[in-house]
Each structure stands twice: as C-alpha cells, then as structure tokens.
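Folded chain entry
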Amino acid sequence: MFARLEAPLPAQLRIAIGFTSSGRRSRNIGECWDNQCSEDRHFEIFIRPDLSESKDLMPMQIAAVLGHELVHAAVGVAAGHGKEFRRVARGIGLVGPMAATTAGPEFETAMRPILEGAGPLPHGRLQPATGASSHSNRRKKHYSRQIKCVCRNCGYTVYTTPKWLDAAGAPLCPKHDRMSIATHNPD
C-alpha cells in the first residue's frame, strides 16, 4: 500500500505495544518516534496496551492506529499531519481528522484478510481494576517544603517555610500566643 503511494516504509522500524511517552494517563493511543531519536536509527512505534474498544473491534482499531503511525514513519515524523501525511493516510484508507484517523471502508477491506491470517493479537488489554496495583498506577507521595504550625488553644493552622521559621520563629496565632510546629515533611 505504501510503495504504491511512493511512500515506502523504512527498513529500520520497530513496533511495540506499550505506553506512549506521556504515560498511562495520556490520551495518545499511538506514537511514532523519529529514527533520529533512536540510538540505532530505527523508527519506534508504540501502541497503547489499554485500548478500550470492544474485543471485536480491537484488532481493526489497532491496525488503524498502526497504519496512522506507519504513515508518520513513511513520510517522516517532521511532516506532522500536514499535506504529505494526509495524502498517504487517505491513500491507505484512513479517514477523519488527520490527528485522529480511523479505519475507513477501504482500509478495513485491505486489512480484513491480513487480520484473519494473523490470528488473535498476542496481547491482553490492560484494565487497571479497583484495588489492583502496579508500579505505574501508584501515586507518588507528595512532600511539601511547607511546615504546618498549629495553635494549641484554638487549632488555627498556617503553613510556612523553614526559611521563615529560622528567621522569625513560629508564627503567632491572631488570638493567642506563638504557635507549635506540628509537622515537618522532608524534601
């Protein structure tokens, strides 16, 4: 398909199912890295492992995402979603806005025999479940440089920095005397 459009695919190309550079919370479902970014000069394509379409549509959706990213590799990542990208994307049957193409009827017709011949995708969708844990879905603990100071009498609370504690001491409660340093979070 690409050769017919005079946009041949590069010989050095890798495709992986994995999170894009923006991580799991990103809306990007695919990404093509320019070969200039790769130490061994390969174009690197990533397709998200947690695409949420139905199992029946998943192989075609992944084929369309892969097709979109292959267009980037064929025309050069620097071309963006411009005129040359549009020419090749439409030429292989992708439709819709160029930044978010989907499989059109021509693309589906061309891909159906390939997908049937390839068999099931050797991958299971990742669906983070409630209570499930992975390194990527744990939130980092936030440490603040602010130090909590509390009035022992009324509970009035303020936060200040170590600089001001060193320079002026603990702050004063508007109704009472000097406040107590309640917590100190290390960097």
Q: What stands out?
A: Residues 133-138 have pLDDT under 50 and may be disordered.
